[in-house]
Design brief:
- The structure holds two protein chains of two kinds.
- The longest helix of chain A has 37 residues.
- Chain A has 14 helices and 41 strands.
- By secondary structure, chain A is of the alpha+beta class.
- The relative contact order of chain B is 0.14.
- Chain B has 13 helices and no strands.
- Chain B starts with a helix and ends in a 6-residue tail after the last helix.
- Classes of the chains: A alpha+beta, B mainly alpha.
- The interface between A and B is large, with 40 and 49 residues.
Chain lengths: 771, 325
């Protein structure tokens, strides 16, 4: 004995004895069917956990792409084909804030003089908005307006209704008027009352007609019928609508007073401007009752200058498009910010010196004083880019913070071949969130606030959609939203069919639509931008080509991937917690049993107290205090579970303590510690192991329960968390593919450890072996 | 039976000490939590002027030692304060909740063990055959199943899809606040209890089946069974009088332990079925940070567990005199 003690270290001896008893145990274990099955199950899950990154078909945070996720409603209808169509005009029938069920008019006009009005109402179920709107009219300018009119028709604009002095809409629940030019006559017509309100000769045949966006209902503000005065300060706006007409060497701006309460003929028509000039680009008529100082008429003259007039036609200043000595020329029209908090105009330009493109942020601080300056400049990142399409814009974030969406066409050899989308911050720098490279040039663009998406029309007729906010998931940057059709030349934002383009009733992402017309075929398409979510998706293969073997959850994450990755947390928490508990418990049991008396009493009393504490409630409270992280859950489970094993080990130690081999060791001079760890420990190890397997099974279910109650780590990928999300999303009845796998996995893994425990139990307690 | 009464007295004294210690631990826990009972009021500006009075009422300005004794006094006299979430005295809520939980869990406990014993002994005697294998496998399966999973499956199938059983609660409240009377009331309550009851029995009976089978197998291997058979006693007598009786001991132990600890499963299951028992209120208290309700329910749960332990120990001592030493 003494000789042996001198040649082997304590650790070596410990392992020697351990290996011997382990070998014996294994030959016994092998005979148990349950044990083998359990071991296979555990190894299977361990394999799953270790090789999760390679086994899982998708990253657990990968979101199913839009084409799988959404069910888009698309309505097609056929109108008269024509090669001479103008871009459709949408006419909301309610001012922005009126809470009512209104309608949205789609007005198609042909140069030959045919105007088609379609009324659309919020679609229910599968019916098209025009079925529900149940009204359409085809008007021929020659006969239907009560006054003699002749073609050609120069496109149509819509006068959105304002509110009268009483805050109402007048005689009709919905209101509005169509305005157009037939040959040289300017006509305003109310389709509700079927009454022509104005027919006035403007003296020439216009090539284009432009209206101020407030009047068209394209701003978040409402035209009012009363002039508001606050003491001496009067807001010099009212029920006025500004219309500009242009042709070769002719530019005219008219101001029309449009009242909707009585539908009397319009008598107040003021000719504001009448100039013999040709405008390079269409003018901007900016009229906003909240910012009367900024309201004005902006005429782009020879591209490098913008003449600024006030709303009464007085020339106030000329803005030179010059930045740092470099002269720039407009590449398309000047656009006003849509929000009612915005005071910015955007002028897309090309610098004549070096050919770089960009956008000038123009601030009309005070038109009357001629205070119109260039605030900021955005430079396109490369010289072969040019902004051919007017930018869209919106107010996002904090009031006054204007975000600009724009698409620049990329030129090669003087021809546009590609396009690049940009999201610009209020500081006129590129926000990297939007990464939209389009393989063809773009001819039209708009941004949909409710859907957080930008849509662009390519020359092939394909409509591209790009997400403009980062959603924490991996969503495709740009997708082809609608397939290409080369006769599709315009896209338009309708908003909702509730009667306002923006604003109340609050437009959800599902209730906004877009409009596309193919004039040569007469095919009119109305499409939803964000459809109804189909998620959670049942198992199967989907349009994007992805196959979800177990379907997805409610945000589009693949269930199988979560299942595979979830095994990591399950095993980690289970094994770590059980291991810690068992280590503590074994230690305590050995010490208490060996030393006895006071140590024993103290340790066992504390074990008793811990045993009585109801585990789950204490765990829940502690989680609430300490925070919901995986680590704390492991610690808490360990702290509450050690007494069980401690008791058993103590009992074992008590009986082993009296055995002869302990006496022998003591005589040969072994220290207490040595006796405990080298001699006693290997003999109690089977109990430790047994208890540990049962504890792992319990810990796995406990962790799942904690996560299910919502008190686990919300960011962890665990099976309990899956069930928590499932039950809080309300999909328990429908999403069986999401409900069954996690519970089944928990059950199977727990069974695995239980089987192993039973097999070990048979070794440790020989009485249980098969007869 | 002098040793028995001495044993009982000793255990009760131990239990009281345990309760005291556990209650103190709970007190420390709640002290450690951020905020105090007035936090919920402090966020609503309407209550600002009331804060000093509330603090005095809750005794929050006293030093911790004084607070500790006030707390102990409150707990032992069952003065639990008012629940913030439910705006009712906690004692009222719990007075209604405790019987409900006891009915559900007590009843299911009895059903589980009766069923478990019957089935377990049946398959143990009929060794071999498909029924044994099938029963064992399904028992193993249900034993390891998380109760909340099978709970939401049952809920979604039997309530949301089929509508056979109600989603939760304890009784139907008719318009006007009335309840059913007499026999109708009993049927109504049973109807509400049916789903959680089934889930509990399904999961826990499995364990009893396995335990009974194991225990019986062990007994069957004993010599005295062989002797009884050799004596020529009919199989029936052998089974009932000799084998089964002796196999019951582990079952009784397990039953008494389950008595004490089944309350924990209450928290999850009552939550799923919106069953207004002690566990449900505890969960709500945690989620809404209602300190008074949480503390009181935890205290009650602890009391039930300690009480259950006493009964368990006493029953075991009565059965096995060696333990009394």
């Amino acid at each position: 004995m003494i000789g042996l003690a001198a040649t082997h270290s304590e650790l070596q001896e410990f392992f020697l004895r351990f290996r011997r008893s382990f070998g014996r145990a294994w030959s016994l274990y092998r005979r148990s069917r349950l044990g083998i099955v359990g071991l296979i199950i555990i190894l299977g899950f361990t394999f799953m956990a270790v090789f999760a990154p390679w086994l899982a078909p998708y990253d657990p945070h990968y979101l199913a792409p839009d084409e799988d996720f959404f069910d888009l409603r698309i309505f097609n209808m056929t109108v008269e084909p024509s090669s001479e169509s103008y871009e459709p005009v949408v006419g909301p029938t309610l001012p922005t804030y009126v809470v009512h069920d209104g309608a949205m008019y789609v007005i198609l006009a042909e140069r030959s003089g045919i105007i088609t009005i379609l009324r659309g109402r919020e679609p229910r179920g599968d019916e098209s908005p025009f079925d529900r709107g149940n009204w359409s009219r085809r008007l021929d300018i020659r006969v239907d307006f009560g006054v003699p009119l002749e073609p050609p028709l120069s496109n149509v604009v819509w006068f959105a209704p304002g509110v009268n002095a009483l805050g109402g809409l007048g005689n009709f629940v919905e209101n509005g008027a169509i305005a157009f030019v037939a040959n040289t006559t300017f006509v305003v017509y109310n389709p509700f009352a079927n009454q022509t309100l104005l027919a006035r000769d403007i003296g020439f045949l216009p090539e284009w007609v432009v209206q101020d966006p407030l009047s068209a209902g394209q701003m978040y503000d409402i035209p009012t019928q009363t002039r508001r005065c606050f003491g001496a300060v009067c807001l010099n706006v009212g029920p006025y609508r500004y219309v500009a007409f242009g042709a070769e060497n002719q530019t005219k701006v008219l101001r029309v007073k449009y009242l909707n309460s009585d539908d009397l003929p319009i008598t107040d028509v003021l000719e504001i401007l009448n100039l013999n000039v040709t405008l390079d680009e269409r003018p901007l008529l900016y009229h906003n009752r909240l910012f009367p100082d900024s309201s004005g008429i902006f005429l782009p003259m020879n591209g490098t200058q913008v003449d600024v007039y006030d709303l009464l036609g007085n020339h106030r200043t000329t803005l030179n498009l010059t930045v740092g000595g470099e002269t720039a020329r407009l590449t398309t029209r000047v656009v006003a910010s849509r929000a009612s908090t915005g005071l910015l105009l955007f002028a897309p330009v090309e610098f004549l010196g070096n050919g770089t493109g960009g956008i000038l942020y123009v601030s009309p601080t005070n038109v009357t004083n001629g205070d119109v300056t260039i605030q900021r400049t955005f430079f396109l990142p490369s010289p072969d880019m040019r902004i051919d399409v007017p930018p869209d814009n919106n107010a996002e974030g904090i009031a006054g913070s204007i975000i600009v969406y724009t698409v620049a066409n990329v030129y090669e050899g003087g021809v546009p071949v590609r396009a690049q989308g940009f999201k610009l911050t209020p500081n006129a720098t590129i926000n990297p969130i939007l990464a939209a490279e389009i393989d063809e040039p773009v001819t039209d663009l708009y941004y949909v606030f409710e859907a957080s998406r930008m849509y662009a029309l390519g020359v092939s007729g394909a409509i591209y959609g790009a997400t403009t906010v980062s959603e924490g998931g991996i969503r495709a940057g740009l997708t082809i939203f609608l397939e290409g059709n080369s006769s599709r030349t315009w896209i338009q934002y309708i908003g909702g069919f509730l009667g306002t383009t923006y604003g109340k009733p609050a437009l959800s992402a599902q209730s906004v639509y877009g409009l596309a017309l193919e004039p040569t075929t007469g095919n009119l398409t109305i499409y939803q931008f964000v459809g109804n979510t189909l998620a959670p998706l049942p198992p199967g293969t989907y349009p994007s080509g992805n196959t979800y073997l177990f379907g997805t959850d409610n945000v589009g994450q693949d269930v199988l991937s979560w299942l595979i990755w979830g095994s990591r947390i399950a095993l980690l928490v289970g094994v770590l917690a059980a291991l810690s508990a068992v280590l503590i418990g074994t230690l305590v049991g050995l010490v208490a049993g060996y030393y006895g008396r006071l140590t024993d009493t103290l340790l066992m009393r504390s074990a008793d107290i811990t045993l009585v504490l109801p585990a789950l409630p204490i765990i829940l409270i502690l989680t609430a205090i300490l925070g919901q992280s995986v680590l704390w859950i492991v610690v808490i489970i360990a702290v509450l579970s050690w007494p069980g094993i401690a008791r058993v080990i103590r009992a074992q130690t008590l009986s082993l303590r009296e055995r002869p081999f302990v006496d022998a060791a003591r005589i040969s001079g072994a220290s207490n510690l040595r006796i405990m760890f080298v001699h006693l420990a290997p003999n109690v190890l089977p109990f430790t192991f047994l208890y540990m397997t049962l504890l792992v099974a319990g810990a796995i279910i406990l962790e799942a329960a904690i996560s299910f109650l919502g008190l686990g780590d919300a960011k962890a990928i665990s099976w309990g968390q899956m069930l928590n999300t499932l039950s809080s999303s309300g999909s328990t009845t429908t999403a069986w593919w999401w409900l069954i796998p996690p519970g089944l996995a928990i059950t199977m893994l727990s069974m695995g450890f239980y089987f192993v425990g039973r097999a070990v139990d048979e070794i440790v307690n020989p009485r249980l072996r098969e007869r | 039976m002098a040793s028995m009464s001495r044993f009982i007295v000793r255990r009760i004294v131990q239990a009281l000490i345990t309760i005291l210690i556990v209650t103190s631990v709970i007190f420390i826990l709640f002290e450690a939590m951020p905020g105090d009972p007035t936090t919920k009021f402090a966020t609503d500006f309407r209550f600002r002027p009331l804060l000093p009075r509330l603090r005095a009422e809750f005794g929050l300005d006293e030093p911790p030692v004084i607070r500790y004794f006030i707390y102990l006094r409150n707990m032992f006299t069952f003065q639990f304060g008012t629940s913030f979430t439910y705006s009712r005295p906690v004692a009222d809520l719990l007075a209604q909740a405790i019987p409900r939980t006891l009915i559900l869990f007590g009843g299911s406990l009895i059903a589980e063990y009766v069923m478990g014993v019957i089935i377990g002994s049946y398959i143990a005697w009929r060794r071999g055959g498909i029924s044994e294998g099938a029963t064992i496998v399904s028992s193993l399966f249900f034993y390891n199943m998380p109760s909340f999973w099978i709970g939401i499956i049952f809920l979604s199938v039997f309530y949301l899809t089929l509508g056979w059983f109600p989603s939760g609660g304890f009784e139907t409240i008719l318009p006007g606040g009335a309840r059913y009377e007499g026999l109708q009331y009993v049927v109504d309550v049973l109807w509400h209890l049916a789903l959680p009851f089934t889930v509990l029995v399904l999961i826990n009976a499995a364990g009893v089946i396995l335990l009974m089978r194991t225990s019986l197998l062990e007994v069957m291997g004993e010599d005295y069974i062989l002797t009884a058979k050799a004596k020529g006693l009919p199989e029936r007598i052998v089974r009932r009088r000799h084998a089964n009786r002796n196999a019951y001991l582990p079952i009784v132990t397990s039953f008494t332990i389950a008595l004490a600890y089944s309350i924990q499963g209450a928290i999850i299951l009552e939550g799923i079925f919106s069953f207004f028992g002690v566990g449900y209120y505890f969960l709500q208290a945690i989620l809404t940070q209602d300190q008074f309700l949480a503390g009181a329910t935890l205290y009650i749960i602890t009391l039930l567990v300690v009480f259950g332990n006493i009964i368990a120990d006493m029953t075991y001592a009565w059965l096995d005199p060696l333990v009394r030493l």
